[in-house]
Amino acid sequence: MRETTRLTSKETAAWLLKRDGFLVLTHSRPDGDTLGCAAGLCAGLRKIGKVAYILENPETTDRYLEYVAPYLAPADFEPQVVVTVDTADVGIFQKNAGPYASRVDLSIDHHASYTGYAAYSCVDVSKAACGEVVYAVLLALGDDLISPEVALPLYVALATDTGCFVYANVTADTLEVASALIRAGADHRRVNKKLFRTKTRGRMALDGALFSGLRFYQDGQIAVALVTQELMTRTGVTENDLDDIATIPNQAEGVRVGIVVKELETGDCKVSVRTAMDVDANAICQQFGGGGHPMAAGCVVEMGPEATAEVLVKAAERQLEK
Questions:
Q1: Are 265 and 227 in contact (CB under 8 A)?
Q2: Which band of pLDDT confidence, cut at 50, 70 and 90, is reported for residue 298?
Q3: What is the average per-residue pLDDT within 179-195?
Q4: d(CA 71, CA 52)
Q5: Within 10 A of 288 (CB to CB), how many other CB atoms are there?
Q6: Is the Cα torsion angle 31, 36, 37, 42 positive or negative in sign?
Q7: Which residue among 92, 248, 256, 278 is least crowded, i.e. fewest CB within 10 A of its CB?
Q8: What distance in Å separates the CA atoms of residue 250 and residue 248, rounded to the nearest whole number?
Q9: Longest dimension (CA), the chain
């Protein structure tokens, strides 16, 4: 692991100005924050005359494709500079990023679990979304840089990583940035309707099954939802339907640790942990090679759903005792 040089947002802006030929990478199972950051950064860099593309992520769902489509790199593009956004560790690089894993020049992130794999890094763990960090960098490049094309994907980044501004990670700064993006032309009404107030019938059926099937432990302090392949088939959902599913267990009164175990096609399980402010989700997931934020973290466990649920509950119980 090479040593990273930490940069402020202003220093990162100056660093970007001196370079060209950017390729932006996102993380595996990409969410709105990593994809919105990638699109917003590319839009901003292009606005100042730079060549900037996003490496197509094969796991991007239809919900987010429209935001990244204008910036996808052609197959023959040879980058001069490789940048990652919202990606704390090489272990969660997008599946086709292997050729770039050892040559990341800059990482822009907001995770406390960032491992310092890039030559340079701009990491601000006080921000609710990586989109806030990208916004600060682009603003440092010029006040007039936040055009509607830049503002829209950055708004997507902020909105999705905060549950449309209802999670505990939201700060006054988050709301101020969101306001600035709306003033700059981000169509927040359309984004909010599409991403937060529209569900397929399959997702509605899945939600009903998960709510009725929640498992509770430690007098209701821990709640677990299992999303098996069989349940997905029965309700007719796809990956496009699974956004924000990690929040379901925590909606039950008294829950301090909410765990969603999603069975993958490989038989392994993706785990999402959401916690109350006094319980460290990151510490729970780090026991299984994952990580994230103090109140929102994830990991992949090489077990089936029942066994995964069992070991995660035990890890959560240990964390509750601290």
A1: no
A2: very high
A3: 97
A4: 7
A5: 21
A6: positive
A7: 278
A8: 6
A9: 58
Token couple for 35: 């994809």
Amino acid at 56: E
> Mean pLDDT of all residues in the chain?
96
> Which segments of 94-204 are extended strands (E)?
106-109, 120-123
Q: Are strands 296-301 and 269-275 parallel, antiparallel or unpaired?
A: antiparallel
> What is the model's pLDDT at position 3?
83
What is the DSSP track for 116-143?
--SSEEEE-TT-SSHHHHHHHHHHHH-G
Place of tokens 């916690």: 275
CA 236 to chain centroid: 25
Phi first, then psi, for residue 315 (nearest 5°) are -65, -40
**Residue 84, helix vs strand vs coil:** strand
State mean pLDDT over 7-13. Answer: 98
pTM attached to this predicted model = 0.91
Length of the chain: 322
Confidence of residue 1 (pLDDT cuts 50, 70, 90): low
| Whole-number pLDDT of residue 38 | 98
Residue found under tokens 């990478």: 25
**pLDDT at res. 239:** 87
Q: Which of 275, 234, 7 is nearest to 136 (CA)?
A: 7
Per-residue pLDDT tens for 116-169? 999 999 999 999 999 999 999 999 999 899 999 999 999 999 999 999 999 999
Determine phi and psi for 257, rounding to 5 degrees: -130, 115
Q: 251 CB contacts (<8 Å, ≥6 apart)?
A: none
